[in-house]
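Box 3.1 A note on notation
Throughout this textbook, protein chains are presented in two layers. The first layer is the amino acid sequence; the second is a token string describing backbone geometry. Keep the layers aligned when reading.
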Amino acid sequence: MLNRHRPKGCYSGAISVGAFRRLAVVAAMGILLAACRQEMVYEVKDRPIPAAAQKALDGPQMERLIIQAAMAKNWRVDVVKPGHPRATLHIRDKHTAVSDIRFQAQSYSILLNSSNNLKQDYSGHIHRSYNRVVRALEDEIDRSLYRASY
């Protein structure tokens, strides 16, 4: 006679309710963790330039200062036209971010132009590393502006 006793929780291919719940929780956590890598695109819009820097720097000097700040953070910079540098950052030769830096006498902006392999989507989300490097660029430009004003 065959022993038809099965171990507890083993039901001829069916998943128990408890196992299904655990699987659903793990799947939901995986989705949430994957979503945490994306954030809304951070853009610097009309960031004020200190009054002392406005007085101390003319247009070409301001442009040179912004380019040097970007290069200090490993961005490669091309000037599209006066007052409009375009900065490109290659991250580990896998990812690319291209941002337009526009400035006037009173303010500057850093706006996303394009990206490659940074999970950018049409709803305005991008990989959080883009936001991190743009904030670092913003901080470096601000430091350079404050240094130039004293």
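Residues 40-148 form a domain with the TATA-Binding Protein fold (CATH 3.30.310.80). The first strand starts at residue 38 and ends at 40.
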